[in-house]
Design goal:
It is a single chain. Helix 5 packs antiparallel against helix 6. By secondary structure, the chain is mainly alpha-helical. The protein is 73% helix and 0% strand. It has one domain.
Length: 142
């Protein structure tokens, strides 16, 4: 089983940033103050659940980390480009070093993004577009 020790610092950061960035990307696609709180709660809850319940040790280890990889002043455009780049880099690293974990990672990222999308009412077109971008990035590798 793969873990943090199997990846460079940059690869591990891309793996983490891809997960949290996916949730943030969905959240910033349709901004509303109350929605943001609900969506942040959904992201945190999903990470806690993955730490306990995932069958993938890699996913458990990724869910233990702190931080999002983005600053408080990151613009939606920065979140979008940073997340999509991180996802492509993460999938490429997994394909090279831990191909058995690629599907678990993809599922984890999509679960996080979809739970954030479902946390608040409204914003469906924008959130659907963000989910589409996330799915496309997870299928491509650099």
């Amino acid at each position: 089983m793969a873990g943090k020790a199997d990846f460079s610092e940059q690869e591990w950061e891309a793996l983490r940033k891809g997960v949290t960035g996916a949730g943030l990307l969905v959240s910033v696609s349709d901004r509303g103050l109350l929605d943001s709180f609900k969506e942040a709660g959904a992201l945190a809850k999903h990470l806690v659940s993955a730490r306990k319940d995932s069958s993938s040790e890699l996913v458990k280890e990724l869910a233990e980390g702190r931080g999002t990889g983005f600053g408080l002043t990151s613009s939606p455009a920065e979140v979008e480009s940073g997340t999509l780049e991180a996802l492509r880099t993460a999938v490429a690293a997994l394909e090279a070093k831990a191909p058995e974990e690629v599907e678990a990672y993809r599922a984890f990222v999509l679960d996080v993004a979809e739970s954030v999308a479902g946390a608040a009412e409204g914003g469906e077109p924008a959130e659907s577009a963000a989910l589409g971008q996330i799915r496309a990035a997870l299928q491509a590798s650099t």
